[in-house]
Design a protein that fits this description.
The protein is of the alpha+beta class and 687 residues long. It is built from eight helices and 23 strands. The longest helix is centred in the last third of the chain and has 32 residues, at 655-686.
Length: 687
């Protein structure tokens, strides 16, 4: 029996083969690429305090229901081939029924404490998003739009996982990643084909031009879990994907504010106990990490070797228009949207680039970097605060991005802006063979989000002590460069380019098509605090063709032992376990699902005063937050001071450093041996 992603891959490959396509086979014999459900949280802009915990639990359950349905969809290729109505009758209809019951409980919880929200019933139904054509998209992609290929063959990667001899490749070309749910070749683009698109507003008189860098390592401690204490407090595996954690060492779904305040920290300055976390990056190379058979890991399509960053820079910068004020302790900020592939790009905000090319930033593509250049992943967090709240119902309304000129509107106050830069030493994948020669890389994601780069996101909780926060603000407002990580450089303006082209330029092998997922951008219909321009992210006029997924990897994340999904490990498909749903096989699952209980992959803790309340959000991950109006996006300028004047810590040393420490020892050894020889000769002469 295959485990986790291996089962998914084998089933998808089988269905693709039966469909008759080999090289261009698509997910589930092309009945659907993924599941697209309305984001219930966008309608919940005002959740009473007393209802937050219940609402968060139910929103987390909605995410679990989607994850379960997606896995059943992935496992049902043969049944769908035999009965075209199977997916609708046995997967989508039960999903709608379960969602309807969960949404009703949300409405009741809010109604008990305030006014019953209107219009939620219409959000129960979800749709199957079919792969588009099998050819790569031709048009340029814009900031956050998923233009290429879509979920098209999210499927058959040659996953070498599983054991069982079912390598998932079967000659399929590996289009669709190790676990069968992406990425694909059209998710990548040669950075050299992207035009410079970064600008920066000038600092005006009265602005704050300083910077403060904190240095917290690269997760050398191996702290991972699939929780999200901001969005889904008290819900194990609330994120459905693994996070890297640096800074605070006690971040789990069950951490209270007191736990965070009393925790150890990986930061050099022990006055910074803030928590910084983001989805892990994996190489889809067939490796099975500790989470291979766990929820949030291989069971939910997050497979392969977790890559430790080469360096991480955490830099706090000022505001070009005004002085900044101190962040309130325990302020929570989420940037980016973990569901941007189906929600649309309104809240997408992560950027991708390469060292030497950081004047070119991408939102919806992974960069193919030339030899000698590293992959760079950047987040610029919101820098305007409402002056009152440390969180909000949708985890966005209390903070906003500055306008194009740097100003904060609607009475918001400028606070230090966290600019996070993560560098990875990974090679450009070999797209022409689906990543077999050089593996694909991608971020962890919700299973139905197909590892699209537009879904990248970062989370931050401020746990600086007040004295250090005051020093930070003074430093920034006085135009100085300060902090434990200051003065080390960090980042590059994109001027010096490595000379060699990527080892594997994008290949145009058609296996999948232009699906741009952005799905209409749900959740961007509300006004945000300050208005601003969309970040510019130009894609090449001809993005690389789709194809590649790659093979296999078994799945990653070393979950770190207990800290992540407490006990929900449960190998093997959490999706149906007893959840009425249809269990993924042929029956019609028509009966009303028992949606009141989460499946094994998502565990909800009982109410407890020790749990953080951190907003009422749900179990999903950032973007899925309740009441999430489209966040005001940073201007194009916002992507440029990514370097900020601080360099992240690099891991390890080089041969020169090693030699420097070994030569003295070697010399001493030689002298010791010589002395011993002289002593022996002296004794012989004495005889």
């Amino acid at each position: 029996m295959l485990g986790g992603g291996g089962l998914v891959t084998a089933n998808v490959v089988a269905s693709a083969t039966e469909e008759g396509g080999t090289d261009s086979a698509q997910t589930l014999s092309t009945p659907a690429g993924t599941i697209d459900c309305p984001d219930v949280g966008t309608k919940l802009t005002n959740v009473p305090e007393g209802a937050k915990e219940d609402v968060a639990k139910e929103l987390a359950l909605l995410d679990q229901q989607i994850a379960d349905a997606y896995q059943r969809l992935m496992n049902a290729g043969q049944a769908i081939e035999q009965d075209k109505a199977f997916a609708e009758n046995s997967i989508m209809t039960p999903l709608k029924e379960k969602r309807a019951a969960t949404i009703e409980r949300i409405a009741i919880a809010v109604d008990r404490q305030g006014d019953r929200p209107e219009g939620l019933d219409a959000l129960a139904a979800c749709t199957l998003r079919a792969p588009e054509s099998s050819a790569p998209a031709e048009q340029p992609s814009d900031a956050g739009q998923q233009s290429g290929d879509g979920q098209g063959d999210a499927g058959q990667g040659d996953a070498e996982q599983g054991g069982d001899g079912q390598n998932g490749d079967n000659g399929q070309n590996g289009n669709g990643g190790q676990a069968g749910n992406g990425p694909v070749a059209a998710d990548y683009v040669d950075i050299k084909s992207v035009q410079p698109n970064v600008s920066e507003p000038a600092v005006r008189r009265g602005g704050s031009s300083g910077s403060f860098a904190t240095s917290c390592g690269v997760n050398e401690n191996g702290l991972f879990n699939s929780d999200n204490v901001i969005v889904a407090p008290g819900v194990s595996n609330g994120a459905h994907h693994f996070h890297d954690y640096i800074g605070n060492q006690s971040n789990t779904a069950f951490a209270s504010d007191e736990d965070l305040a009393n925790a150890d920290t990986s930061c050099v300055d022990k006055g910074d106990k803030s928590t910084y976390y983001w989805p892990v990056l994996r190489l889809q190379n067939g490796k099975q990490e500790q989470d291979a058979n766990k929820p949030g890991g291989g069971i939910e399509g997050n497979a392969g070797e977790i890559v430790q960053p080469k360096e991480v820079t955490l830099n706090f910068v000022g505001n070009p228009q005004s002085k900044v004020t101190e962040m309130p302790r325990l302020l929570r900020i989420i940037t980016g949207d973990a569901k941007a592939f189906v929600n649309g790009p309104a809240n997408a905000n992560a950027s991708w680039s390469c060292t030497g090319f950081e004047d070119r930033q991408l939102k919806d593509k992974y960069p193919l970097c030339p030899q000698g250049s590293d992959v760079v992943r950047s987040f610029k967090f919101q820098s305007c605060w409402d002056g009152q709240n440390i969180d909000s119902a949708n985890h966005r309304a209390h903070v906003a991005f500055a306008a194009a000129d740097g100003s904060c509107g609607n009475g918001f106050k400028a606070i230090p802006q966290l600019v996070q830069r993560i560098v990875y030493d990974v090679d450009a994948p070999s797209l022409q063979d689906g990543g077999k020669s050089t593996p694909l890389f991608a971020v962890d994601s919700f299973p139905e989000q197909l590892h699209k780069p537009v879904t990248d996101h970062g989370d931050f909780i401020n746990v600086f002590d007040e004295k250090l926060m005051s020093e930070m603000v003074d430093c920034i407002n006085e135009g100085r460069t300060c902090g434990a990580g200051a003065g080390d450089g960090g980042g590059d303006p994109g001027q010096e380019e490595p000379t060699e082209a990527p080892t594997t330029p994008p290949a145009d092998n058609g296996g999948n098509g232009g699906g741009n997922g952005d799905g209409g951008g749900k959740g961007d219909d509300e006004t945000q605090p300050p208005a601003t321009e969309e970040p510019a992210t130009e894609a090449p006029t001809t993005p690389p063709a789709d194809n590649g997924g790659d093979g296999g990897k078994g799945d990653g994340g070393q979950d770190n032992g207990g800290q992540d999904n407490g006990g929900q490990d449960n190998g093997g498909g959490q999706n149906d376990g007893g959840k009425n749903d249809d269990g993924g096989n042929g029956g019609a699952g028509a009966g009303q699902p028992q949606d009141d209980e989460p499946t094994v992959s998502s565990t909800v803790a009982p109410k407890s005063s020790g749990e953080p309340d951190a907003g009422n959000d749900d179990g999903g991950d950032e973007a899925e937050a309740i009441g999430t109006p489209a966040q005001t996006q940073p201007p194009t300028s916002d992507t440029d001071s990514l370097t900020g004047g601080a360099r992240a810590q690099a891991v390890g040393g080089d041969l020169a450093e090693t030699g420097t420490s070994l030569w003295p020892a070697a010399g001493g050894a030689v002298l010791l041996i010589a002395g011993f020889v002289v002593l022996m000769r002296t004794r012989r002469h004495a005889r």
